[in-house]
Amino acid sequence: MSVHTPFRRHRIRRGALTVALATCMGAALVSCSDAESDGAGRSVASPAADTRLAGLAQQAADTGSLGVIVRVDSGDGAPVEIAKQVTWTEDDHRLAAGDRFRVGSNTKTVTATLVLQQVAEKKISLDDTVEKWLPGLVEGGADITVRMLLNHTSGLGDFLLTPEFLPSLTGQEERTWTPEQLLAVTPQQESAPGGTYSYSNAGYEALGLILEKATGTSLAELIEEKITGPLGMKDSFLATNADWDTDETTRKQHVTGYEPDAERLRNILSGTVDLPEDVGFAGPERPEETVDTSGIDPSWSWAAGGMVSTAQDWQRFLTALMSGELLPEAQLKQMRTTVDAPEEGGGYGLGLMRVDTSCGTVWGHTGGLPGYSSEIYTDAGGRRSVAVLTSTNFGIKEEKAATANKTLVEAATCQMLGEPQPSDGPAE
Description:
The chain is of the alpha+beta class and about 425 residues long. The chain has helices at about 15-20, 45-65, 105-120, 130-135, 145-150, 165-170, 180-185, 200-215, 220-230, 260-270, 300-305, 310-320, 330-335, 400-415; strands at about 65-75, 80-85, 100, 235-240, 260, 285, 290, 305-310, 340, 345-350, 355, 360-370, 370-380, 385-390. Strand 13 (about 370-380) and strand 14 form a beta hairpin.
């Protein structure tokens, strides 16, 4: 799902509590360059740069990120892999760079890729209406096209913070939701179809249903058949529950995620939205006024945010996508045709973000679920990639944590693009 935050400005978007929880479940790297890097720039990787990056990762962990995985592949040597965590979290889980992680709304890029593959095969048209595929399921569906769902111009609201769904989001209620049920509780359209960008997880639930109807295949099977299988992404799958036992074949562990407890969460969001007394994330209490959110079932997020992966696996996917391995040129061009999305740091295409950073333009997505925040990008040609995975979402909305995390993401992205790491950073 997405609880977005542009280049760690960490403002809470999309209106009141929706902006608070729905928007804080993701993150976008934002800065100030119009130049697009093609990844051909000089490499500035060095032992000193790697050491500084590791130091920034530890500082981010100690300042509020709690656990951080960084993986930088500059395309000209062995990737840099870093895993750092605050000391007390080691009792729960010893973090490793190859651990599995809930990548949240990064899943949207996979869903969009699957749709565009079907467009290339002429089974789906970007101009098809939702009503054609899902008659009677989405209010106003006759005026909403597949393209609008993909680039968030459908005008659809979101279900995340509705009274019916909020207890499931926070883990206070255990309930299995179908996409149809989520669409049924989605509020009425917030704007006219085809208008301005307005992020909606509901739109991607609808896209998942369209994919299944067009192909006669389940979304999980499509992902394995078209994406993870061909690319050898052995640690990536669509979550169906919250059972995170260590994989017996690969021995890969699942990262433990944390969020502030109810009182601290209210303080973080104070001035933006007033949370009811009983709203907080469910889970075992941990040090520093935090809650272990690993037991919250993310399967409801499905086509909008349900995938589990690793930094390496997801970078493999993004680089394959951007280099033209997964889509014909015409569909990749459509995917990269963006609408203005300032809150994402640039523009939004078809399931793909364009983010303008201080070191150049990157492509990818952000993601977030309770306890998990991720930013994964590649250069324009799919030759270089970077992933920063953080084991909290709302915990990095506090000022010091936001600053440290922003500095880390910016440094890792610049190193990926072959540019010097910014010299400024959080105070030592």
